[in-house]
Amino acid sequence: MIYENIQGFNYESGYEYVIKVKVEEVRNPPADGSSQQYTLITQVSKTKK
User: Which InterPro entries match (predicted)?
Assistant: First the structure.
């Protein structure tokens, strides 16, 4: 599970998702931030829970 924001992905409560993301290293990340950035490639599925 990713606890950071995924650029281009809009989560809706009550759904379960399968997604593909691109992971990129962040140069000089802030001390309290992640050293990785996540970007949505595609949403494979979205199922109502």
Answer: DUF4377 (IPR025485)
Whether the pLDDT of residue 41 is over 70: the answer is yes
Q: Which domain holds residue 42?
A: 6-48
Tally of structural domains, the chain:
1
Given a contact cutoff of 8 angstroms between Cβ atoms, the answer to whether 11 and 40 are in contact is no
Cα–Cα–Cα angle for 1, 44, 48, rounded to 5 degrees:
75
Q: pTM of the full predicted structure?
A: 0.78
Distance between CA atoms of residues 41 and 49, nearest Å: 23
Give the pLDDT confidence score for residue 1 in this predicted structure: 61
